[in-house]
């Protein structure tokens, strides 16, 4: 045995072998404390990469290179089957039961075009190291049973309909614009024989004929140790040795026992993509233009996908240069392409987004263009090419590109501070797939600061040469996505016809047989996991988690009482007291170790007249791109504002509320380097009080919003949120005023008013600002390195000294904006027909707990975790039965509502019935609530609490929201951990009866369903049978709606997540 295994301790950066493992490469970067080491087993070829740094969470990405040469969906379906049990642990979902016990919230995975990644994240190392060998047993030796295939991939139900988790997922995606366009582009871009042509998620037609044997064969080819890389980020007590020890002792022997000790490169092994037909690529030879129709009743606008060839995957400097160039071209309202196409009164699109897809031989450079008016679709690419040529002829603005480079570097450093090694996880995955096996590309892939420094020396001609080489002198492929109302009708007709033929072909006997097979599969999954296995996996000690310390001081303003319990004797308090007189403004300082400072200003919307609430979306959209009048009378143009902001900040944001809470306030946030603190405070004052509501700029912002709406209205989840808010909230609700359907009605009118009576519109925005800036409703959060600030307090009195004293008003909560039905949600069901989707999106809502310190909340929180946890009751009864891709119950304590949601459901009524059975069964004892389930739920909650405060920035803003917005102690979440531990089985059953059961009764709940047109009547009849008063609605398109651009409502690419 090697002396490094049990000999004297060797420093982590000194040893180069451990058991079967040899060090391939160790990378220390001079701009971060993350140390990267790559190891490989001589015996099995298994690779380990550890990113070592201090952090409360340990994260794992276990990556398999997955190449497929057809549309069967083998990589994606296999990803799902891996979680259904393994050789040593042949129980469905056991991996998640064990993960939940180990301070995790279950496991997850995704499938991309070229790899599948399995993920786990735990608070502390104990749970992670316990889970690792079990997880790898699932990846390398899954059971892949017939029963698992039926429920998880595809089956036919008793009604003759196709279902299954994967099938439901792809049913919700296959005919979206993004998927249709991506697949067409792949077919043109890559030659026959290339795996990059494939739909790795699986096309529905292929999934219906796929067999479990095909998946098993695929697993045998690709899920081998020499094609598996374990990427682990975070701190372990014995460093990398902690990992190597577990793998050497508990993983390698099992692999060797399976005869897979063939070394790093077994005979006849071909590295996926790099040594197969997929590597044989030629450059695009000529401009190729193809159209693809997607189902949509609104035919006013479509989308484009242009793809160019890029440099080789290891040309790191050139790839970084292209990234900077694309940011220069599109990152802000003053970027050249945005100015020409988006920031105009009749936008030609809502966004132009440059991306990069890493591939063997050369990367691809796709450009996504959204919400293009139909009349511009066919020639848009030619206009864009002309723009590229003009930009190259005029030359690059060297001042602005220098600013883009500097800001990009600031953002990288900021991300590194918060995410540390996870910042690099994507780069490490790419290196595993495409980098040199000896690790020689690793340092180059990670050394981004070096490339910034080189690019700062580039001349204008070098930048224009880059633009010419990749976007001007090269041919490209363009796929035009065209909306088609007739296709929407045809798809519905075809699907009804296909299902009728399937039912006829199966006949009564075939349908009965299909039902028997499904029930048998479900019964097989229900086999109980022996308690001894679960309890042999100990729940870690909460004390093992290291929490990030936050020092807090709250200044409530002159004449106001202090609510914070923070120490006034601390070093932070002394530092603030020594800096001038107390403020008249509410400011809370939360100090954490950081190189940055965050300023978050919350402005209450309580006093805004209801007729002005619809204006808020446009106000926020325009906030950082309007002219500003400074205190000295100087007026900055909107371009000067944008350029200066980009030059002086890491990031800035104007939004409603924070983390989907406190949506009756506007939040303006800045993140800056510590030295720029005064600048950020000044910007806050100038942008809030000094903005000039310029008619042209408001028109541009409103036009961009209008253009984005048709695309957003194609998304089932967006429409569900909108109808749900409309059902339960009244006109005093800012959230309701900002929903897609409300804005679709308001924004076209706003545009007309700006043209016909601009003075009235400007007066409305002025009035809105006057309501916002009432000092009684302002709360300021300062987070970051407060002790490193020379003037933490007096900077505010210098810039905001004239606000005057006022009584601090209470925070307005969303429960105050509920309508009559929202306050008493009973009996009403709304079923909405949306032609762009094929599955259903559903919310069932009842009364819940209102308030942030309710004594019954700990029991409800544990109850929700018991229901929602991966592989727990909802997962098994809904997702496990292939009835929906997602099912969960959530509590909104601000509004006092409880909602059961279904996402991408193939049969939402059956899902509703199954969950009702489970809840009723738990209450009458026919479904057992085990102590091990309770332990796992409590353990999983610990992970959620740790994740919420896992970075310095999160910990600081959490301190603010707890104290300043919720009126709770700073460490309330950590205090609750003790209360969660004290929750008993009886408490959970009481909570189920009081809060969850009412969701399944029409006398105590409401329902909103957004579904495909073909399913509306069936769902409406089902809900009527439960006693609901059902209203059916069709999302009609206003014939006058010439609205037209942002945000993509569809998913693009073929990345799949579990």
Question: Would you mind describing this structure in some detail?
Answer:
43% of the residues lie in helices and 19% in strands. By secondary structure, the protein is α+β, with helices and mostly antiparallel strands. The strands form 6 sheets. A 9-stranded mixed beta sheet has the order 1-2-3-4-10-5-7-6-30, with helices on both faces.
Question: What's the topology here?
Answer:
Blueprint lengths: L2 H4 L10 E2 L2 E8 L6 E7 L5 E6 L4 E9 L8 H8 L12 H8 L2 E8 L3 E9 L2 H15 L5 H7 L2 E2 L5 E2 L1 H7 L5 H13 L14 H4 L4 H11 L5 E6 L6 H18 L30 E8 L5 E9 L6 H15 L5 H6 L9 E4 L9 E10 L6 H15 L3 H22 L5 H10 L7 H5 L1 H8 L4 H13 L4 E8 H41 L5 H5 L15 E5 L15 H7 L8 E6 L4 E9 L11 H7 L5 E2 L5 E2 L1 H11 L2 E8 L2 E13 L3 H13 L5 H18 L3 H13 L5 H4 L2 H17 L1 H15 L5 E7 L9 H7 L19 H4 L4 E6 L6 E8 L9 H12 L4 H7 L4 E9 L4 E9 L2 H17 L6 H18 L3 H14 L6 H10 L3 H12 L9 E6 L4 H10 L3 E6 L21 E2 L1
In a nutshell, what does this entry contain?
With 1058 residues, the chain is α+β, with helices and mostly antiparallel strands. The chain has a nine-stranded mixed β-sheet with strand order 1-2-3-4-10-5-7-6-30, with helices on both faces. A six-stranded mixed β-sheet has the order 16-17-23-18-22-21, sandwiched between helices. Strands 26-27-25-28-24-29 form a six-stranded mixed β-sheet, with helices on both faces. Residues 1-11 and 1037-1056 have low confidence and may be disordered.
Uncertain segments: 1-11, 1037-1056
Shape: globular
> How much helical structure, as a percent, in the residues?
40-55%
Structural class computed from helices and strand pairing: alpha+beta
Characterize the largest beta sheet: strand count, sense, and whether it forms a barrel: 9 strands, mixed
Beta-strand content: 15-25%
Number of DSSP helical runs: 39
Mean pLDDT: 92
Q: Order of strands side by side in the largest beta sheet?
A: 1-2-3-4-10-5-7-6-30
Over the alpha carbons, how many angstroms does the gyration radius reach? Answer: 29 Å
First-to-last CA distance: 40 Å
Kindly report the oligomeric state of this protein: single chain
According to DSSP, the number of beta strands is 30
């Amino acid at each position: 045995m090697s002396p490094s295994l049990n000999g004297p301790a060797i420093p982590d950066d000194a040893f180069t072998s451990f058991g079967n493992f040899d060090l391939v490469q160790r990378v220390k970067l001079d701009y971060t404390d993350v140390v990267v080491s790559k190891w490989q087993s001589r015996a099995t070829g298994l690779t380990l990469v550890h990113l070592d740094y201090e952090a409360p969470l340990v994260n794992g990405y276990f990556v398999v290179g997955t190449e497929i040469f057809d549309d069967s969906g083998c990589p994606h379906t296999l990803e799902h089957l891996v979680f259904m049990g393994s050789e040593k642990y042949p129980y469905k979902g056991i991996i998640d039961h064990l993960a939940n016990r180990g301070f995790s919230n279950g496991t997850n995975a995704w499938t991309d075009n070229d790899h599948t990644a399995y993920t786990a994240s735990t608070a502390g190392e104990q749970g992670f190291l316990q889970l690792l060998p079990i997880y790898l047993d699932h990846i390398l030796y899954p059971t892949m049973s017939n029963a698992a295939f039926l429920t998880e991939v595809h089956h036919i139900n008793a009604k003759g309909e196709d279902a299954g988790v994967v099938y439901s997922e792809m049913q919700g995606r296959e005919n979206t614009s993004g998927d249709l366009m991506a697949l067409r582009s792949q077919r043109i871009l890559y030659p026959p024989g290339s795996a990059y042509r494939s739909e790795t998620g699986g096309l529905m037609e292929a999934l219906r004929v796929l067999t479990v044997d095909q998946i098993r064969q695929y697993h045998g080819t690709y899920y081998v140790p020499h094609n598996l890389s374990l990427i682990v980020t975070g701190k372990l007590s014995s460093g990398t040795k902690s990992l190597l020890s577990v793998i050497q002792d508990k993983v390698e022997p099992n692999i060797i026992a399976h005869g897979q000790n063939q070394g790093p490169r077994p005979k006849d092994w071909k590295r996926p993509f790099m040594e197969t037909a997929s590597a044989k690529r030629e450059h695009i030879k000529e401009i190729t233009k193809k159209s693809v129709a997607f189902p949509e009743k609104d035919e006013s606008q479509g989308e484009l996908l242009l793809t160019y060839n890029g440099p080789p995957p290891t040309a790191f400097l050139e790839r970084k240069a292209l990234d900077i160039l694309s940011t220069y071209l599109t990152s802000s309202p003053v970027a050249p392409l945005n100015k020409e196409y988006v920031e105009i009164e009749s936008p030609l699109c809502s966004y132009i987004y440059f991306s990069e897809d890493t591939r063997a031989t050369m990367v691809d450079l796709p450009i996504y263009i959204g919400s293009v008016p139909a009349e511009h679709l066919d020639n848009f690419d030619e206009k864009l090419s002309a723009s590229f040529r003009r930009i190259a002829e005029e030359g690059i603005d060297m001042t602005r590109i220098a600013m883009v480079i500097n800001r990009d570097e600031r953002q990288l450093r900021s991300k590194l501070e918060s995410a540390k090694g996870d910042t690099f996880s994507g780069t490490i995955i790419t290196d595993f797939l495409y980098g040199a096996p000896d690790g020689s590309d690793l340092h180059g892939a990670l050394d981004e600061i070096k490339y910034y420094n080189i690019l700062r020396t580039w001349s204008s001609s070098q930048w224009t040469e880059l633009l010419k080489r990749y976007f001007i002198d090269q041919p490209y492929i363009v796929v035009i996505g065209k909306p088609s109302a007739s296709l929407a009708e045809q798809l519905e007709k075809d699907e009804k016809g296909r299902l009728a033929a399937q039912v006829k072909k199966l006949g009564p006997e075939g349908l009965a047989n299909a039902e028997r097979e499904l029930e048998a599969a479900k019964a097989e999954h229900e086999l109980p996991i022996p308690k001894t296995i679960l309890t042999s996996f100990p729940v870690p000690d909460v004390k093992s988690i290291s929490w990030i310390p936050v020092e807090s001081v709250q200044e409530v303003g002159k004449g106001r009482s202090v609510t914070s319990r923070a120490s006034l004797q601390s070093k932070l308090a002394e530092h603030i007291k020594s800096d001038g007189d107390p403020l008249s403004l509410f400011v809370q300082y939360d100090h954490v170790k950081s190189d940055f400072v965050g300023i978050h200003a919350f402005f209450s919307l309580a006093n805004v007249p209801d007729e002005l609430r619809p204006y808020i979306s446009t106000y926020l959209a325009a906030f950082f791109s309007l002219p500003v009048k400074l205190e000295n009378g100087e007026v900055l143009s909107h371009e000067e504002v944008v350029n200066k902001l980009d030059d002086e900040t890491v990031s800035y944001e104007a939004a409603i509320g924070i983390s989907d809470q406190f949506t009756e306030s506007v939040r303006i946030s800045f993140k800056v380097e510590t030295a720029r603190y005064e600048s950020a405070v000044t910007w806050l004052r100038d942008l809030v009080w000094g903005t000039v509501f310029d008619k042209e700029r408001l028109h541009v912002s409103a036009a961009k919003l209008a253009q984005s709406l048709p695309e957003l209205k194609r998304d089932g989840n967006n429409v569900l949120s909108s109808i749900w808010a409309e059902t339960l909230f009244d006109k005093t609700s800012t959230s309701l005023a900002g929903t897609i359907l409300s804005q679709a009605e308001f924004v076209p009118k706003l545009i007309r008013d700006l043209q016909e009576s601009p003075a009235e519109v400007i007066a409305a925005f002025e009035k809105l600002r006057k309501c916002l800036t009432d000092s009684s409703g302002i709360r300021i959060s300062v987070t970051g390195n407060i002790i490193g600030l020379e003037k933490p307090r007096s900077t505010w009195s210098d810039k905001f000294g004239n606000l005057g004293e006022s009584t601090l008003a209470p925070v307005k909560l969303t429960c105050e904006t509920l309508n009559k039905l929202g306050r008493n949600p009973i009996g009403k069901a709304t079923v909405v027909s949306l032609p762009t989707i094929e599955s259903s999106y559903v919310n069932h809502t009842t009364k819940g707990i209102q308030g942030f310190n309710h004594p019954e909340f700990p029991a409800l929180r544990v109850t929700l975790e018991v229901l929602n946890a991966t592989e727990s009751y909802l997962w098994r009864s809904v997702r496990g039965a292939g009835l929906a891709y997602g099912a969960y119950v959530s509590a909104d304590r601000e509004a006092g509502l409880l909602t059961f949601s279904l996402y991408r459901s193939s049969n939402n009524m059956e899902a509703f019935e199954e969950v009702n059975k489970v809840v009723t069964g738990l209450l009458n004892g026919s479904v057992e609530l085990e102590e091990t389930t309770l332990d796992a739920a409590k353990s999983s909650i610990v992970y959620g609490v740790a994740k919420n405060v896992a970075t310095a920035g999160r910990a600081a803003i959490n301190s603010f929201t707890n104290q300043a917005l919720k009126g709770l102690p700073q460490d309330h979440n950590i205090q609750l951990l003790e209360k969660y531990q004290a929750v008993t089985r009886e408490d959970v059953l009481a909570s189920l009866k009081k809060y969850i059961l009412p969701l399944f009764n029409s006398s105590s709940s409401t329902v909103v369903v957004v579904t495909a047109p073909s399913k509306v009547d069936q769902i409406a009849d089902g809900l009527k049978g439960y006693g609901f008063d059902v209203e059916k609605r069709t999302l009609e398109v206003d014939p006058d709606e010439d609205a037209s651009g942002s945000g993509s409502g569809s998913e693009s690419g073929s990345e799949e997540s579990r």
